[in-house]
Structures are given as structure tokens and as C-alpha cells.
Design goal:
Blueprint (H helix, E strand, L loop, with lengths): L1 H14 L1 H4 L13 H25 L11 H35 L5 H6 L10 H27 L4 H19 L5 H23 L9 H26 L6 H55 L1
């Protein structure tokens, strides 16, 4: 019974003809053109700004727009989608390594293949199918921006920049058969599965973590990405070149900008969190002192 379930999942996640025969094509893959990419990002930014302006005119100050169960359902959907992509690309990578290692095994180990595709790699097959699904999932991530605007009544510039750049990067992975994307998708979807599960947990009224859980997860993800980027660079010079290294270099610059912006945000979050904890401790100490004073007065 258990083996049958595993075989069924393996078929649907890595052996289905649509997955094995996938090919990134401007003619046949939805959303695969540069014009679509730039139009979609521009539309996302425009809607976000217009929604912000509309709320500034119509909404009462400090009053969030009620969203009901929508954010919780979105978080649940993104949890399942992220985990599906993680499972799919894990099984697909194992299958691709098994079938193609005869071609590159003298120069690379399987882990090195995950970092550095051989020169001449084309965007087709199992791994690129799940890379394509990940690219499409970026548009579902954008929806969370609208929730933030409706709740807070304002745009968060870092959020707009982050979603736009990550969507652009995921497009370039496919367009240039870029190395490193497998490990990037594995780590990102694993972290997103945890982050969105936590958001769903909080959205249905369960207790929050005692620290900035989401921010720390994102910081961990960025740290892993930096380490992998260093690995790609070393592999490129030591193993005869990695496919899509030009796109990788451009994406590295974009990732560096995101990292710097996030570090600034991370420091502010932790500084603010530390100050809130300190102020809460001071207030608690004052309350305890007041209670002791009342007791002493009563005793007299």
C-alpha cells in the first residue's frame, strides 16, 4: 500500500509525460515572453500604488480593511504549492541525475551538478518543468502585497522591489538555463512551506512565536543563497564553466541588492523588537513596584 502511494506520487511529480517532455518555449509556455514579464511586473506595481492611493482617500486612518479568511486560505494554498514544488523538483533532480550522470560524472559530483549545469544545457525536462511552475508561483506570492496594503493602508517599497526582482530572476533561470537554480528552488520552497504554514497558523488565531519568525527564516534563506553563489563561482572556474553564467552574474547583482536592503530591514526589526522587549520589562517592573507599595501601605 505504502509503496503504491510512493510510486503514484513519483509518477505525478517526476515521470508524467508532461513533466518529462517539458520544453521552455516562447510559443508554447504561458508567460514565457519578455513582454509578458515586464507587463506583469508593471501591472503589479501599478495596482499596488493605485490601491494605496485609493485607501488613502477613502479609508479611515488607522482602520484596516477586513479580509476575513482570505489571507489564511492564501497562506494554506501557498504552503501546499511550495511543498509540492519542493517535492517535485527533489524527485525530478534525482531522476535527471540518474539518467544523465554518464555524461558529466567524470567532471562533477551530483551536488556539483546541482550548482553548475554543464555547458550547452537546454531548458527542457523535469527540472525545468518545476522551475517553470516556480516562476508561475511568483505571481501568487505577489497577492500578499495587496493584503499588506489593505491591512496597513500603505505600500512597503521593499516588498514591491523584492517580489518584482525575484519574479524577474526566476524568468531568467528558464530563459538562460541558468546554473544554481535547482538548489535555489529547493531551499526557497522549503523555507516558504514553513513560513506560509506559520502564517496560516497565526491567521487562524493560534499563538505567535516569541521572535520575528518569518524575518529570521528569510535571513536564513538569504545566507544559504550567498553560500551557493560562492559555490557556483568556484565551480565555474575550477570545472570548465557553468551554463548561463552571464545571467547568473546579473542575478547575483540583483540578489546582492536584495540582501543589502533586507539586512537593513532585519536590523531595524530586531532593534525594534529589542526595544519593545526592554520597554515591556520596564513597565512590568514598574507595575510590580507599584503593587509592592500598595501592600506596604495596607500593612501599615
Amino acid at each position: 500500500m505504502g509503496r503504491s502511494v510512493i510510486q503514484t506520487l513519483t509518477f505525478w511529480l517526476s515521470e508524467h509525460p508532461s513533466i518529462v517532455g517539458f520544453r521552455w518555449s516562447h510559443a508554447n509556455s504561458w508567460g514565457s515572453t519578455w513582454s509578458f514579464l515586464f507587463t506583469a511586473i508593471a501591472l503589479y506595481l501599478t495596482i499596488s500604488v493605485l490601491l494605496h492611493l485609493l485607501l488613502a482617500l477613502l479609508r479611515r486612518k488607522g482602520r484596516p480593511v477586513p479580509l476575513g479568511p482570505i489571507p489564511a486560505l492564501h497562506s494554506l494554498f501557498m504552503t501546499l504549492l511550495s511543498f509540492t514544488i519542493f517535492a517535485g523538483i527533489t524527485l525530478s533532480s534525482a531522476a535527471e541525475i540518474k539518467e544523465t550522470k554518464w555524461f558529466w560524472r567524470r567532471s562533477k559530483t551530483p551536488f556539483q551538478w546541482l550548482l553548475c549545469f554543464p555547458l550547452g544545457t537546454r531548458p527542457s525536462g523535469r527540472v525545468f518543468f518545476w522551475s517553470y511552475i516556480y516562476y508561475l508561483s511568483r505571481f501568487f506570492h505577489m497577492i500578499r502585497t495587496f493584503f499588506t496594503i489593505l491591512r496597513r493602508g500603505r505600500v512597503v517599497p521593499f516588498q514591491l522591489f523584492n517580489h518584482s526582482i525575484l519574479t524577474f530572476i526566476s524568468f531568467m533561470w528558464l530563459e538562460f538555463s541558468q546554473s544554481f537554480q535547482v538548489l535555489a528552488i529547493l531551499s526557497t520552497t522549503l523555507v516558504y512551506s514553513v513560513v506560509y504554514a506559520y502564517r496560516f497558523w497565526v491567521a487562524i488565531g493560534l499563538p505567535r512565536a516569541g521572535f520575528a519568525f518569518v524575518v529570521n527564516c528569510q535571513m536564513l534563506l538569504l545566507g544559504c543563497n550567498v553560500a551557493c553563489h560562492v559555490g557556483v563561482l568556484l565551480m565555474h572556474f575550477m570545472k570548465g564553466g557553468c551554463n548561463g553564467i552571464g545571467a547568473w552574474g546579473f542575478n547575483s547583482v540583483l540578489n546582492a541588492v536584495i540582501l543589502l536592503l533586507f539586512l537593513n530591514f532585519y536590523v531595524k526589526i530586531h532593534w525594534g523588537y529589542g526595544r519593545r522587549v526592554a520597554l515591556a520589562a520596564v513597565e512590568e517592573a514598574k507595575a510590580e513596584a507599584a503593587e509592592e507599595e500598595v501592600v506596604r501601605v495596607k500593612d501599615k
